[in-house]
Amino acid sequence: MDQSVAVWLVLAMAVVAANLPYFNERVLLVGPRRVPKAVWWRLLELLLMAVLVFALGSALEARIGQRQPQGWEFYAAGVCLFITLGFPGFVWRYLRRGRG
Fold first, then answer.
1. Closest CA relative to residue 43, chosen from 70, 25, 74, 22
2. What do you get for the CA distance between the two ends of the chain, in Å?
3. In angstroms, what is the C-alpha Rg of the chain?
4. Across the chain, what does the average pLDDT equal?
5. CA 37 from chain center: how many Å?
6. CA 12 → CA 46, 66, 87, distances in Å?
7. Predicted TM-score (pTM) of this structure
8. d(C-alpha 22, C-alpha 56), whole Å
9. pLDDT at 74 exceeding the cut of 80
10. CB 31 within 8 A of CB 21
11. DSSP H or E run through 65
């Protein structure tokens, strides 16, 4: 797999994963349906999705070549980016106004 394809794959997966907790009413995407789902469930799902995307990125980096060691700054910036990518789902769930 080419390096640029891997980067775009991780970014696309991050966008989808960051918005899934807001568009889905199931607990951890497969559990029982809860309407409305509590905010702390959404935050837990967001954290788990971030861990999965980081694991995917790490696995793709290891497959392409040598995996580079990362410090806390990398993960802090990555979490901020992940939260930013989830903003459209947050707006759709909590900030949109009802019609009529």
1. 22
2. 50
3. 16
4. 89
5. 18
6. 15, 23, 15
7. 0.86
8. 21
9. yes
10. no
11. none
Q: Where are the alpha helices (DSSP H) in 1-100?
A: 3-23, 39-64, 72-85, 87-90
Report pLDDT for 100: 42
Q: How far is CA 68 from the centre of its chain?
A: 22
Inter-residue contact 49 to 17 (CB < 8 Å) = yes
What pLDDT shows up at residue 99?
Answer: 52
Residue 24 CB contacts under 8 Å (≥ 6 apart), including other chains: none
**Bridge partners of residue 58, in order along the sequence:** none
| Paired tokens of 7 | 């980067």
Separation of alpha carbons 21 and 34, rounded Å: 12
